[in-house]
Recover the amino acids of this structure.
């Protein structure tokens, strides 16, 4: 759902198996969630089973390439589990599902589901507290947590399945940063807005939509850049080979830009302005003294606009 809400082209490429949505940080997440799921299975019906102890021991035996991150992430999980009294815990690593559309002759039912890391009862009877562990580098703000599709969709699912719930406090426990990002979702204000959003995503899914919605933030983390004709500029090169990209960046930073500028100044002094597709390097007009610079049509337009504004005053 989240992938489709972000960019249908990307979601479809992942669904078709053309690209794989896996990176080192999600490997850490997968490993952590596997340990949690195993622990919960063993804890079921066994009052003496210490799940926190189990998580700590198993994290140490995690896949060696991601073990330090798993230990770190699950260490905090153990802390949060100890802090949350057992009576308040409603679900750990539990899949919540709802039938959004009944099946027809042409297709089966559309079921929306999401796995939630920890759901606990809040202080009030109609309040829930959700904690989701994030092991990646992204440091979310509260505003980002509030508008994230994952937050909204998870809360909508809970509100749909548990009609008494009016308020949900949602925490992203950001294990690399040591501070959470927080969102507050209220049935009264948010439920139907989110339902509209979900409905649109379901329609995109049912209509097999493959539209691309490029955006620098999305494309620079997208696994489909190699096959996407809509990928935005820098994202393809960056995603193709991040190390090579870094070296190019370092080379530019360490003086190539200065050298390029010097070379172009020498060239312009001899041959005049260099220009291509509305971008040019040369003498700044109408300056009396020689002032080199890089200019674009955009600069000219904003200059015209400023002049216009001044004339209109
Ligand atoms: S590269 Fe950008 S536009 Fe293309 S699928 Fe990925 S996010 Fe969408």
């Amino acid at each position: 759902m989240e992938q489709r809400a972000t960019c249908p082209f990307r979601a479809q490429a992942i669904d078709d198996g053309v690209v794989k949505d896996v990176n080192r940080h999600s490997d850490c997440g997968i490993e952590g969630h596997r340990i949690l799921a195993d622990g919960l299975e063993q804890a079921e019906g066994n009052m003496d089973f210490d799940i926190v102890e189990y998580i700590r021991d198993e994290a140490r035996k995690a896949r060696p390439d991601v073990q330090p991150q798993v230990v770190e992430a699950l260490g905090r999980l153990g802390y949060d589990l100890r802090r949350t009294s057992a009576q308040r815990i409603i679900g750990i690593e539990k899949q919540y599902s709802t039938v959004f559309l009944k099946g027809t002759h042409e297709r089966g039912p559309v079921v929306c589901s999401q796995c939630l890391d920890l759901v606990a009862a809040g202080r009030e009877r109609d309040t829930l507290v959700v904690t989701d562990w994030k092991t990646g580098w992204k440091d979310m703000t509260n505003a980002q947590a509030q508008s994230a599709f994952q937050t909204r969709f998870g809360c909508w699912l809970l509100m749909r399945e548990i009609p008494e719930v009016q308020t949900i406090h949602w925490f992203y426990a950001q294990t690399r940063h040591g501070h959470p990002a927080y969102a507050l979702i209220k049935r009264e204000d948010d439920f139907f807005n989110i339902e509209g959003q979900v409905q649109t995503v379901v329609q995109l899914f049912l209509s097999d939509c493959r539209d691309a919605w490029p955006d620098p933030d999305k494309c620079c983390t997208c696994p489909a850049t190699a096959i996407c004709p809509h990928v935005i500029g820098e994202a393809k090169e960056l995603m193709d080979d991040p190390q090579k990209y870094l070296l190019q960046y370092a080379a530019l930073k360490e003086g190539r830009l200065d050298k390029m500028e010097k070379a172009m100044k020498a060239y312009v002094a001899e041959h005049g302005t260099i220009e291509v597709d509305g971008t040019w390097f040369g003498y700044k007009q109408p300056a009396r003294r020689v002032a080199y610079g890089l200019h674009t049509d955009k600069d000219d337009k904003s200059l015209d606009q400023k002049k216009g504004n001044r004339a209109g005053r």
